[in-house]
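User: Can you predict the 3D structure for this chain?
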Amino acid sequence: MFEPCFVSDYIAPFLNELSGITNFTIKTQWIYQVGLEGVGVQAKQVPDDSKTGRHYALAEDSLPHIITSLEKKLGTQITDNPCIHLVVYVPPCAQAPLKIYRKDGQRASPLSSNVEAFTSAKWGGIVFANPAETTCVRYMEDEQFSDVYVHAQDVMPVLLYQLRKIFDLENNAPLLDTTLVPYNSIEPRTWEVDTFIRTNTIYLVHSATSTLQSLIQLLGGIEYIVINDEVGAAIQNAYHKVIEAKQQLAQGNLQTAAFIAREAYTSAERAFFDPSLLALLYFPNEQKYAIYIPLFLPIMIPVVFSFNTILKYFRKRKSSKQAKSKEE
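Assistant: Here is the predicted structure, written as structure tokens:
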């Protein structure tokens, strides 16, 4: 059983601090009786000195297969927007506790930890919340099902750390003559938020600029292309917003620059993927030749031969006139 405050007290406050650069929509999903299936996913039983007498080892190489196994059961296909997955998987006692092993054969987490986790860039993170040892011992004795409680203080620090890694909020570079004190708040530090906004604003400006450059090169290679007013307005808006975002960045107005950069990125993408341009992109000159030549070639061949016949007629007529004039 999960505590109901997982999202409202932990995930939402963290993401609210980053909402200046992007919009987040949080959705939760409960799936019961989900096993780890697929090739390379099966955990290996390893004997140990615990009360259960064993644990199950997951090799580091099998972790991508676990993502594939779980992703099929997640409801992310209902949206076209990018998703960050945060999965808390509670294994059954028959396959618990799950422990992750690195490639060198060593445990990835301390022996006393009851929580295992790993992060996949641009996908999200998975946390294995193993049932308590007493719960599994009781299950092994009489095979009676019992509730498994997952506490926030065990899982949420790991999930928040995964979010920090995904959004690249971790600063491992040493600061000269500075000591970084422990930070116990859920929300990221103010300077971490500023760094995140600045980095993503630069990314949006660069992406919008690259999209406009690609669009110019693409349109330059298509003859007789007609750009409608909506596409032209989107290109102009993206261009001016890129310049304005750079100016706001130079002045240190991060929130304003982030908002303008997002508008520039949206306008550039809308212009690049406009349906009126896509129709022309998929009908180049080579395709026109491939369509019209088979259509007109059978008609042109008799015409060419008829011109040849007419030319022979006039040549013959001219030669006959010259012969008559010589005889006279």
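The radius of gyration is 34 Å. The chain is about 50% helix and 10% strand.
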